[in-house]
Amino acid sequence: MISLNDHPNAVSALLRILLELASVNYLKRHEIGERSDLASNFRLVYENLEERDILERDYIKELARMREDELISIKSMQRFVHSPRFAPDRTELQTYWARLGDYLIQAISN
Hints:
By secondary structure, the protein is an all-alpha fold. It has one domain. It is built from five helices and no strands. α1 runs antiparallel to α4 (about 75-80), α1 (about 10-30) packs parallel to α5 (about 90-110) and α2 (about 40-50) packs antiparallel against α3 (about 55-70).
């Protein structure tokens, strides 16, 4: 088992990979044109989930804010994945998982 305390970069990499795979898979299943970057694909999915009344408007605003603040970006997540000196702290990763939970569940199951 990967410990969050011992391997924050690995846990961050898993989150990023899950987020990207869930988003791309959703776009393919719903025949929505995939983009070349994670942030754009993430936006396309949450906008579609909102249009389908699957995610609430307040949650969509939170996801949009995460995207706009570059919390959901290749740039920020790549730094977590590739830099031994730049690692998210435990509470930051727990917050990412908690805030993205509903998005991931809906993107995977709808």
